Amino acid sequence: MPLETASPAGLPDERLAHAITRAGEALAARQNADGHWVFELEADATIPAEYVLLEHFLDRIEPELESKIGVYLRSIQGGHGGWPLFHDGAFDLSASVKAYFALKAIGDRPDEPHMVRAREAILAHGGAERSNVFTRAQLALFGQVPWRAVPVMPVEIMLLPRWFPFHLSKVSYWSRTVIVPLLVLMALRPLARNPRGIGVPELFVTPPARVRDWIRGPYRSAWGRFFKGIDVVLRLAAPLFPRVTRRRAVARAVNFVTERLNGEDGLGAIYPAMANSVMMFDTLGYAPDHPDAATAWASVRKLLVVQPDRAYCQPCLSPIWDTGLAGHAVAEADSAAAPSVDAACAWLRERQINDVVGDWADARPGAPPGGWAFQYNNAHYPDVDDTAVVAMLLHRNGDPAHAASIERARDWIIAMQSRGGGWGAFDADNTHYHLNHIPFADHGALLDPPTADVTARCISFLAQLGRPEDRAVIERGLAFLRGDQEADGSWFGRWGTNYIYGTWSVLCALNAAGVPPDDPCVRRAVAWLVSVQREDGGWGEDEASYGDAPHGQYKESTPSQTAWAVLGLMAAGEAEHPAVARGLEYLVATQGSDGEWRELPYTAVGFPRVFYLRYHGYRLFFPLLALARYRNLRRGNSRKVAFGF
Question: Is residue 258 part of a domain?
């Protein structure tokens, strides 16, 4: 049938329109009265387990709440007996140790079948002694392992000059905010109150007192062996550091935390940093009602999701990101000037960070602030990705009242471009790669280097503005993207899973920047996306692709990843490609009667191979954006996507 009168593959116009209407209504129903959207943000078992252990560290145990968290933890236990890092994923030792410890603290007996299965799986994988650094630090706080189980990180780090090979300004914002209060804990070595006296000696293959190789390989490079030697030297030297120096270092760490406490949104607005700040204040003797201690505790509590039958703790909150993405979807489906988009833009504009010069200024001194955070408030740590997405929405909305905000965002984003042409998420030129090999960084995620997805969003924003004077900045970004393309034609998706996400992001940017559809890098990307489409017409990608799993493949399709692939193909000029037709048919066919989509697999990431995320909003706004964009292309005289998102 002609494209102008019917949807692809026989999908009637009426059916497409009905799907868009229902999806739009479902998304509108979730918008808050003040104009913003916020959805649950779910990680793995580690965050709720750590929250339980935090209550036991402080002796602030809430049996009813912990019982509900226990329901949640048991529900996500894997068939392998332990806990994965994402839905239906492989066994993860550290997550399993924390989940088992938390359930035992809640009151689960070690002889219950689910605990037996978990314990056997943990022991089969080397026992708790082989868990990661952060898990061993948690165990040390409860006296389950000696502090020598943790790499040496003296609090005197706080006093190091900026030129020193290791300095806090050289690591990512999330590492910085987690490390600083942890340095105080590692220096003072508190012992959890643990009123029920819960321990987990049964999780160790070798009794902790007899373990001699806590800090060991395999090392990822010669740097790892070098830093292992430094760790040995520091163990001998640290006890000799002057006490006055230690007191100065602790004071500086406390000042760092209190300056960035961020109200009830918390230090860094991320759970690990917030929990560490709570324990730091407690260890330093702050009373629970001390303003700083009370604020830190309230910030942690704000992350709880409590439902009638279960509860869990989120790693952070995502209202700016959710509102920006939802706003783009509604703008595509309805109008960029729709009342709901107006309300979202007004809410977002009020949250631009204009008066705080954050840690990002260490690398870009003199640059004026102008970004947006990811969370409700996080003034010291605006997010480049969020800033580009929000500023594109404000620009698209067209209200002249947004002009100054857009200009500030433009100036800040241009200032945050790294020397190689790309953009990182929170810092510029955060590329001190040797630091990913220190023993403390066994997760390999200490840094925030430029990535294809964030770079793509910045290019899209600047291209959408269309300023001739920005062309040199855009060209440097495009050169970065061309150099970052994988051999198979895809791009790595640092903040979304994974190569599908990265490839969609870059194709949108290339289109916005005027790179023609017949450009070789575009053709390779299109060929790759088509090659990984699944038989049901959708796309899916396993979180394991951050490891050794094939790019762009999974055992099932997901709505969000299908939407990304379809959006990417349309941006590449392939709106009439049969793959797009099949992808749209998948989205319409899998939409629920409530206008929403169901998506259990995780499709986002915090730290590749270590920490993954499920944004509960992705299954709503990305399919709506894809369906509405296709409809709009069909209605127009051109098949060229007008926007870079």
Answer: yes
pLDDT of residue 644: 76
Active site residues: 385
Write down the number of H helices and E strands in the chain.
22, 5
Checking if the pLDDT of 5 tops 60, the result is: no
Q: What are the C-alpha distances in Å from 426 to residues 83, 349, 635?
A: 30, 19, 39
524: exposed, middle or buried (Cβ count in 10 Å: 0-12, 13-18, 19+) = middle
Which amino acid is located at 148 in the chain? R
Question: Does 228 fall in a domain?
Answer: yes
Gap between the Cα atoms of 272 and 256, Å rounded = 16
Please say which residue of 278, 313, 348 terminates a domain. Answer: 313
Per the structure, the complete domain to which residue 627 belongs is given by: 451-645
Residues 6+ apart with CB under 8 A from 391: 405, 406, 409, 410, 413, 461
pLDDT at residue 4, as a whole number: 37
**pLDDT attached to residue 466:** 96
116 in a structural domain? yes
Closest CA to 224 of 430, 436, 431: 436
Q: What sections of 513-617 are H helices per DSSP?
A: 520-531, 559-571, 578-590
The DSSP secondary-structure symbol of 367 reads P
Mean pLDDT of the chain, nearest integer? 95
Query: Could you tell me if residue 4 is left (phi over 0), alpha (psi between -120 and 50 degrees) or otherwise beta?
Result: alpha
**pLDDT tens, 467-517?**
999 999 999 999 999 999 999 999 999 999 999 999 999 999 999 999 999
Question: Tell me, what's the pLDDT at 215?
Answer: 87
Residue 50 lies in a domain: yes
| CATH number for 611 | 1.50.10.20
C-alpha–C-alpha distance, residues 303 and 315, integer Å = 7
CA dihedral angle for residue 598, residue 620, residue 566, residue 491, rounded to 10 degrees: -90
Report DSSP letters for 234-247, one per residue.
HHHHGGGS-HHHHH
Domain count, the chain: 2
| CA-wise closest residue to 78 among 86, 69, 88, 70 | 88
Q: What is the pTM of this model?
A: 0.95
* Domain final residue, candidates 313, 343, 363: 313
